[in-house]
Amino acid sequence: MSVFISATGTDVGKSFLSSLILAKYGEELGLKYFKPIQTGEESDRASVMDLSGLDESRFLKNYYAFAFAGSPHYAAELEGTEIDTDELARHLFSIREEKLIVEGAGGLLVPLTRKTLTIDVVRQSEIPLILAAPVSLGAINQTLLSLEAIQKRNLAFKGIFFIGTPDKTTEDNIRTILEWSGVPMLGFFFFHTKERLSREEFRKECFLRFDPDSILKEAIQ
């Protein structure tokens, strides 16, 4: 079964979480990676491939790729086109039984067109969702709003994974989010440096600190 990785917003850590999953479990579980929509010149597909160290054959090509680093609906409009969300939803539905880590673009309420949000396509695809959430100041509001949107649409939801650089609010942020939402927690991964890790450093940190109790592993199987 595939899983859809989304987040409370842009640059929360979807690609990093995808890299962690693929680095640790890609070979064992036969996982592949798919980012249907890429905006901007920097390729998340290439970044995840580099960090995970898996063969390129495990990385599906983007369904859509736009040069402008912005919301998919606007990036598409700048190139004189529109994302066919019905076709995309059908495609995702057709591959939902495969072992794919599907990474969304931005957060759940990011528009793909002027009429369709990312969360609508996730619902239509019937792919279970994992939400990446931040851990620092401001995390409570944006995370509870995302969880409210998920629950309102009755999405198949695996749980929440906390990721980011901790601060003095982190411990209570996590506690408060879990108490108010009642959703499963799949784990956490804290950054100890803002510098980009080499592949070797990343894999070392991944195997030392990521998913030590295999909770997330169980969720993606």
How would you characterize the overall build of this protein?
- With 221 residues, the protein is α/β, with parallel strands linked by helices.
- It contains 9 helices and 8 strands.
- The protein has helices spanning 14-29, 44-52, 72-78, 85-94, 118-125, 139-152, 170-181, 199-209, 215-220, and strands at 3-7, 32-34, 37-39, 64-66, 100-103, 129-133, 157-164, 185-190.
- The strands form 2 sheets. It has a 6-stranded parallel beta sheet with strand order 2-5-1-6-7-8, sandwiched between helices. Strands 3-4 form a two-stranded parallel ribbon.
- α1 (14-29) crosses α2, α4 (85-94) packs parallel to α5 and α6 (139-152) packs parallel to α7 (170-181).
- It is globular, with a radius of gyration of 16 Å.
